[in-house]
Amino acid sequence: MGHMYPTKSCDSVERLIKHAVYHAKIQNCQYGMYNLAGASGWCAFDYNTHADFGSGDRICYHGVCDIFRLPKFAAYFYKSQIDPKIEKVIFIARYLIPSFNEDYGDEVIVFSNCDEIDLYVGEKYINSTKPDRINYSNLPHPPFILKNCSWWEWGASNITSLKAIGKINGKEVAQHEIYPFGKPNKLVLKPDYTELIADGADCVRVVIELQDKNRQILHLSHHPVFFEMAGPGKLIGENPFSLEAGKGAIFVQAGREPGKIVLKAYVNELIPAEIIINIIAIQEETVP
């Protein structure tokens, strides 16, 4: 699918939604073909390529996640197919912006493994719906399609949020709420873990997000982020790093001495973000 419809995280909302919907349609078809063992959507992650392929920047944007393993809308379709006994999933595949209806008409698509969805604008109840088993009859957990959704009828600039509440057996089990985007409010660093082994190779991904006051990632941000690092290790990645769709990632690699790495990140006039990664002594015997 990705090869036929490559999609960047910073692409238009319409393309991000279509990318997810196309994956859902193809997987729905393969689930209905009982002589197939399965089908894998190409592919999980964007990846580096050669000059004669891809989008001209030597990157193939074929993934349901970007090159840093950060999800696009399509990733939430796949996540929604998980058994709700393992995890309850709900995701509104939209941005709450003034071009709401120009972006994808009057539909709101919600990816979820719940039985039913209630939609609210602010505190006002709008509608309830079941999974779309007419157009996605073969999927374990079809998308939810809500029609006649209008930015202007909902109140335009007075809209405070759009919330989907997922229910199973009539009981609320999950919710996802989106808001109109605000100004940059906070730079956030999210390490996958905060402890490394001092073997000179161990490393960790550190995700970077520029958020508004509602902790939403500012998807139109391409701000440069500057890093300072102190301690027994090194930073792997660009410095400064230009955000793509308000996010990105770098890596921190441990040195061979135990200690503490302090990583700071700066953007514009916001308060710097800071994390600490502990480097612990290697316990195993090593070859001299």
From TrEMBL:
- Please tell me whether the keyword Acyltransferase is annotated for this protein: no
A molecular function (GO) term: hydrolase activity, acting on glycosyl bonds
SUPFAM superfamilies in the cross-refs: (Trans)glycosidases (SSF51445)
Q: Which UniProt keywords apply?
A: Glycosidase, Hydrolase
The Glycoside hydrolase family domain covers which part of the protein?
187-275
Q: Which Gene3D superfamilies match?
A: Glycosidases (3.20.20.80), Immunoglobulins (2.60.40.10)
The keyword Hydrolase belongs to this UniProt entry's keyword annotation: yes
Q: Which family does it belong to?
A: Belongs to the glycosyl hydrolase 2 family.
The protein, known as? Glycoside hydrolase family 2 domain-containing protein
